[in-house]
């Protein structure tokens, strides 16, 4: 009738669990099942004691609900992390009718650290955490638990097999979840020579999905956790962990990415100042002379290389448009506005003509006679025009045109002096 | 080291020249550069357009003359001309940004005094909460100031007007007014832009006397309103949320992660500032409590190999906080990871201004001294110091302790030489540490000689410091150490001079020191010296005097007058010492 007493290593006795009445195996099993891996452990003796004092195992609902309520209260007060699975289990148990069963329920032995169970994720915890109480809960579902679960399933009026598998699944999830939290809470102390053969396999999803919002608890673990050593491998399992989990769910991706037709106003003072601040983030003193020269070029104090002859022209054109008087009223602008940039068409003249159009003006002399003083004269004119940087090509062509018209008009006079035209 | 100060000197010279040119523009009109280089010409800060017109107003706004603009605006209104909405908005922008104060000019050395003026101006006018270090140095938004007045005077207001007012209020810490104005904006069925919403989020966090939960719920409300008004959030939205969550301490951790996930989910890439806020939130206390968060590892895993461009003005704070966390967690691997990230691409530009760079490297090097093998540490020492940063004296002390642990004390004289170059010549704690390490144990003779030289050098620094200051700089321990080092290296003359210094500065020599001196006197076979020692001990009334006397008697043969002198001495001391029975009989 009473559970078999098994030899136990000294454990931290659970003094806080006042299972006072009606200690059916089920609730014992429930306590065992629900016990946090960290704290609430019960020694065999306690169970023994409880069974001793409470001989009658009642199957009344209200009496049964009391210990479970107390169980749940205890678990709530002792655990700083709650799982919905736990709640579910308790709820299941609450609605249950209990009868005495002679199942051999054993609490788990303090686990042999190196023991690897095959049922659940196999995590080997470090042996040398002496300040911690050795964990009562085994790393994986020990056969005793399975037995307990099957005992529960047997006692339930529901489908036994399904209940059992459900319970086992819940237990497994609970195991993994609680272990995950505990592992997650370990601060990092890398004594890698001590922890040499650690393996971790766990799923993060079970843990993060079921967090009630009102808990003041952050995902990464508990605060009151005693310092634990942490293997280097464990860290890798945290990859991308911060990005998995609940989000605010306020914005929608679609709504954000679609381009609303916003009218772009001129940048306001706020925008300008923000841009300035942003540019200041990356400011560093010069690392070498090249950076200094880059900065000077940006300011306009150094010419750009390869040197562009026409850089002068644009500067003249733009400054010519604004008289010096008004230059004072302009706010100081960055130099790059005034001087030319490298390879844009603004390098050249306003009408985009290149230097060869300015210099090689012979093609406009085709209508003039090939020899004689007129030719000489026109060649001198073109020579002078080609050296003139202040006129545009159009203006130069106009000059030549004017001369053509002039000589055409004065044909008669020229004929008298005997100059040929063609 | 010199290049750094040279660059700084150059920059400050440049600033000074610019200041002079711009203060007296009429002397600098000659332009000989061909083509024209606008940078070299003086800038014009005075408005040129005279008369009352909107163009004049616009000019003053452009030149950021707050008072002049306000006056012009008032004049325009009095003259009856209406100011266009856009110009009025620009004026509001200026007023709200500058907080109704004249903005400080760009010259660093002027900024200081102007800032102090600002402070004085605002101090008298409102009861200010604690000063916030920042640009405005405590400029707060006063009720009924110019901005509000002009806002009220504007015949028509559009969304931009409200927005800029809200932003100004939040910037100058008037959150409740900002929120009220926001309700007004909603009442007028206008739509706020994303920047305004960012300011409003900040405002909800600034409101005092509210619980964290309430504030968080208000922020969530605002976000929902953003969705309702079809305003797209940007990076600054989320960064502002995280910045405010920092103040919520433990409560803010879960919301911060949710915010981060939201950001990722809608495709906004977090910037370095985002991670900086998260680190600050999760690692708020310097010393790691039990079970400190592991989120830094997630963050570093996420960031490895990424190159960044500046997206948020706080981006340059990331590396400093990351290294601080590494240091407090004592994780060297992680520190290497962070340093790798710094050296990826152009990320080194995010190290920030000088003090932040120094902080980063001090923490990094301290961690290296603590955790890394000595050879690697020394390699880093050569690489980093002084080319990358100037070590604090604490850094050097860490290095010395690392040398001590690794038993490489022979490098100490080199470190001392380096320390002098870095300007730590007069640092007491550093010199103490050096002397202590050198004098602690006996070493092979060559090393002892090197140590003695180093000690002599340090002694000279003490003496020069003495000459400059009135307060004596000698410490008893340093005297002890130096004397011991001299003795051990066989420089007995100087060692004996040290004894004189003890008396001069009224410091008490240690027992071991006196024993060593006694030993040395014995070795040189000079009883006079031994008597000197005993006299010194007697002068200080040290309890060791008796044992010294006994040793003296045992080891040396004394002449008669020496014995008498000794007797007087012991008589003196015996009066003051507690166990005096034997001594009375001695030497008589």
From TrEMBL, chain A:
Protein name stated in the entry: Small ribosomal subunit protein mS31
Main location: mitochondrion
Any single GO CC term annotated in Swiss-Prot or TrEMBL for this entry: mitochondrial small ribosomal subunit
Region described as Disordered: 104-144
Family label: Belongs to the mitochondrion-specific ribosomal protein mS31 family.
Keyword Disulfide bond among record annotations: no
GO MF: structural constituent of ribosome
UniProtKB/TrEMBL annotation, chain B:
Residues covered by region (Disordered): 569-588
Biased composition (Acidic residues): 578-588
PROSITE patterns documented for this protein: PPR
GO biological process annotation, one example: mitochondrial translation
Predominant subcellular localization, coarse grouping: mitochondrion
PPR repeats: 158-192, 234-270
Entry keywords, A to Z: Acetylation, Mitochondrion, Repeat, Ribonucleoprotein, Ribosomal protein, RNA-binding, rRNA-binding, Transit peptide, Translation regulation
Keyword Cytoplasm annotated: no
Places the protein is found: Mitochondrion
Recorded coiled-coil stretches: none
Record Pfam families: PPR_3, Rib_mS39_PPR
GO molecular function: ribosomal small subunit binding; rRNA binding
A GO cellular component entry from the record: ribonucleoprotein complex
UniProt family annotation: Belongs to the mitochondrion-specific ribosomal protein mS39 family.
Role, per record: Mitochondrial RNA-binding protein that has a role in mitochondrial translation.
Protein name: Small ribosomal subunit protein mS39
Species for this entry: Balaenoptera musculus
């Amino acid at each position: 009738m009473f559970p078999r007493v098994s030899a136990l290593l000294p454990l931290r006795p659970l003094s806080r669990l006042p299972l006072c009445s009606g200690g059916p195996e089920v609730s014992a099993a429930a306590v065992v099942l629900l016990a946090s891996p960290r704290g609430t452990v019960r020694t065999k003796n306690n169970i023994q004691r409880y069974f001793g004092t409470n001989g009658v195992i009642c199957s009344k609902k209200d009496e049964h609900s009391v210990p479970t309520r107390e169980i749940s209260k205890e678990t709530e007060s002792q655990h700083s992390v709650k799982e919905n699975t736990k709640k579910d289990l308790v709820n299941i148990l609450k609605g249950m009718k209990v009868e005495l069963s002679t199942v051999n329920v054993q609490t788990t032995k303090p686990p042999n650290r190196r023991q690897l169970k095959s049922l659940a994720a196999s995590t080997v915890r470090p042996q040398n955490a002496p300040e911690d109480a050795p964990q009562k809960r085994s790393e994986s579902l020990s056969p005793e638990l399975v037995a307990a679960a099957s005992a529960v399933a047997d006692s339930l009026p529901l489908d036994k097999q399904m209940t059992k598998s459900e319970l086992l699944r819940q237990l497994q999830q609970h195991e993994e979840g609680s272990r995950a939290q505990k592992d997650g809470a370990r601060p990092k102390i890398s004594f890698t020579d001590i922890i040499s053969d650690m393996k971790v396999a766990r799923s993060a999803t079970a843990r993060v999905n079921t967090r009630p919002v009102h808990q003041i608890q952050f995902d990464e673990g508990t605060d009151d956790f005693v310092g634990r050593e942490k293997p280097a491998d464990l860290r890798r399992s945290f990859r991308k962990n911060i990005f998995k989990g609940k989000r605010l769910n306020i914005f929608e991706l679609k709504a954000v990415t679609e381009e609303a037709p916003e009218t772009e106003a001129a940048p306001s003072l706020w925008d300008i100042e923000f841009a300035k601040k942003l540019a200041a983030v990356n400011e560093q003193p010069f690392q070498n002379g090249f950076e200094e020269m880059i900065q000077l070029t940006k300011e306009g104090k150094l010419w750009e290389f390869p040197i562009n002859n026409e850089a002068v022209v644009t500067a003249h054109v733009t400054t010519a448009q604004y008289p010096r008087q008004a230059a004072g009223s302009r706010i100081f602008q960055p130099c790059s506005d005034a001087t030319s940039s490298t390879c844009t068409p603004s390098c050249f003249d306003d009408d985009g003509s290149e230097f060869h159009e300015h210099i090689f003006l012979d093609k406009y002399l085709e209508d003039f006679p090939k020899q004689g003083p007129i030719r000489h004269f026109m060649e001198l004119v073109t020579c002078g025009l080609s050296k003139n940087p202040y006129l545009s090509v159009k203006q130069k062509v106009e000059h030549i045109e004017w001369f053509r018209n002039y000589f055409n008009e004065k044909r008669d006079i020229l004929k008298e002096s005997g100059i040929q035209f063609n | 080291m010199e290049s750094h100060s040279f660059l700084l000197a150059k920059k400050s010279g440049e600033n000074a020249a610019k200041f002079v040119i711009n203060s007296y523009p009429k002397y600098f009109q000659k332009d000989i550069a061909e083509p024209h280089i606008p940078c070299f010409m003086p800038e014009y800060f005075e408005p040129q357009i005279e008369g009352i017109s909107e163009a004049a107003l616009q000019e003053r706004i452009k030149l950021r003359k707050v008072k002049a603009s306000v006056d012009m605006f008032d004049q325009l209104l009095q003259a009856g001309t209406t100011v266009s909405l856009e110009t009025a908005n620009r004026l509001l922008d200026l007023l709200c940004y500058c907080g109704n104060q004249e903005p400080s000019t760009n010259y660093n050395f002027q900024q200081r005094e102007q800032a102090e003026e600002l402070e004085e101006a605002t101090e008298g006018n409102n009861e200010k909460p604690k000063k916030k270090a920042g640009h405005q140095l405590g400029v707060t938004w006063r009720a009924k100031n110019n901005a509000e007045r002009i806002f009220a005077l504007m015949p028509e207001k559009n969304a931009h007007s409200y927005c800029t007012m809200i932003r100004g209020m939040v910037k100058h810490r008037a959150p409740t007014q900002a929120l009220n104005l926001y309700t007004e904006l909603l009442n007028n069925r206008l739509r706020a832009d994303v920047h305004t919403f960012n300011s409003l989020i900040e405002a909800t966090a600034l409101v005092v006397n509210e619980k964290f939960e309430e504030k968080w719920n208000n922020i969530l409300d605002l976000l929902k309103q953003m969705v309702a008004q079809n305003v797209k959030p940007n990076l600054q939205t989320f960064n502002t949320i995280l910045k405010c969550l920092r103040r919520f301490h433990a409560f803010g951790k879960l919301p911060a992660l949710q915010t981060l996930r939201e950001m990722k989910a809608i495709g906004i890439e977090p910037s370095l500032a985002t991670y900086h806020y998260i680190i600050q939130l999760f690692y708020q206390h310097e010393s790691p409590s039990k079970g400190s968060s592991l989120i830094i590892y997630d963050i570093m895993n996420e960031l490895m190999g990424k190159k960044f461009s500046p997206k948020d003005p706080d981006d340059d704070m990331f590396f400093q906080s990351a290294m601080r966390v590494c240091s407090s967690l004592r994780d060297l691997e992680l520190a290497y990871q962070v340093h790798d990230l710094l050296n990826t691409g152009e990320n080194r530009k995010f190290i920030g201004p000088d003090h932040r760079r120094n902080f980063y490297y001090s923490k990094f090097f301290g961690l290296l001294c603590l955790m890394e093998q000595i050879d690697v540490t020394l390699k880093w020492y050569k690489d980093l110091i002084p080319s990358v940063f100037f070590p604090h004296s604490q850094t050097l002390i860490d290095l010395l302790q690392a040398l001590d642990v690794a038993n490489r004390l022979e490098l100490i004289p080199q470190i001392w030489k380096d320390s002098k170059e870095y300007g730590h010549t007069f640092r007491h704690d550093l010199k103490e540490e050096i002397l202590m390490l050198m004098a602690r144990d006996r070493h092979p003779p060559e090393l002892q000689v090197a140590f003695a030289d180093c000690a002599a050098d340090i002694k000279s620094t003490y003496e020069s410091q003495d000459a400059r200051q009135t307060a004596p700089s000698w410490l008893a321990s340093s005297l002890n150490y130096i004397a011991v080092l001299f003795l051990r290296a066989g420089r007995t003359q100087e060692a004996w001079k040290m004894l004189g210094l003890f008396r001069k500065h009224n410091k008490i020599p240690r027992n071991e020191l006196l024993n060593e001196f006694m030993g040395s006197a014995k070795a040189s076979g000079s009883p006079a010296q031994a008597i000197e020692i005993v006299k010194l001990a007697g002068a200080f009334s040290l309890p060791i005097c008796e044992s010294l006397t006994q040793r003296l008697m045992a080891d040396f043969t004394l002449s008669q007058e020496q014995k008498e002198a000794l007797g007087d001495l012991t008589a003196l001391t015996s009066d003051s010492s507690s166990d005096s029975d034997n001594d009375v009989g001695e030497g008589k």
